[in-house]
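Module 6 notes. Inverse folding takes a fixed backbone as the condition and produces residue identities as the prediction. Think of it as a translation problem where the source language is geometry and the target language is the twenty amino acids. Below is one complete input and output pair. Work through it position by position during the lab.
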């Protein structure tokens, strides 16, 4: 549960704090999207206490998902159809684990959206060497690739945000993840989503 770099939670512009004011907790953790090493995942989420998850809840993909407007979302790597299909399947599988069942968008109790982004960025790091009175400081620029995923569930009847999580990670190196691994990662994001009432 260790973040090795200071992440930028504004990859998607309007962040969680804008959507739900001060009640939202931003996540700056180590979520892997389609590549990298899943050795360090820190997840923080927002759960709306005003929205109850009923028994046998149903969900559907929002027929009017948010438009891709930010450079990270328009990056060809984020728009890759294969990646997006795998993310959708992983979310569907994770929701099933939580007790949610698919339904038509017109009748589903909850509508689901996600946003994914990839961007190349950089960070300066500082190191020091030497003893007392002889210390030297060295600045080094690190270039890396950052990936982000935000998942949101809205109550269809009211449009109220019920649950939201955001993950950001360094995805510079690594191999493509299997769908099972990606589902486990999505489950980390949905860990605080209440299970369906029995």
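Target side of the pair, the amino acids:
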């Amino acid at each position: 549960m260790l973040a090795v770099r200071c992440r930028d939670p504004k990859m998607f512009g309007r962040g969680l704090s804008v959507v739900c004011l001060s009640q939202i907790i931003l996540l700056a953790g180590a979520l892997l999207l389609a590549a990298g090493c899943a050795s360090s995942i820190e997840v923080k989420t927002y759960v709306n206490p005003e929205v109850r998850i009923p028994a046998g809840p149903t969900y559907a993909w929002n027929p009017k998902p948010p438009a891709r407007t930010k450079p990270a979302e328009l990056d060809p790597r984020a728009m890759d159809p294969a990646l997006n299909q795998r993310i959708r399947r992983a979310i569907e599988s994770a929701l099933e684990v939580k007790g949610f069942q698919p339904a038509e968008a017109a009748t589903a109790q909850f509508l689901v959206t996600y946003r994914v982004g990839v961007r190349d960025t950089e960070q300066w790091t500082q190191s020091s060497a030497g003893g007392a009175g002889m210390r030297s400081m060295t600045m080094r620029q690190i270039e890396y690739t950052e990936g982000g995923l935000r998942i949101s569930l809205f109550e269809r009847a009211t449009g109220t945000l019920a649950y939201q999580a955001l993950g950001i990670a360094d995805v510079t190196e690594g191999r493509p993840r299997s769908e099972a691994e990606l589902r486990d990662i999505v489950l980390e994001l949905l860990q605080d989503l209440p299970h369906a009432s029995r």
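Reference fact for the lab report: The longest helix spans residues 81-97.
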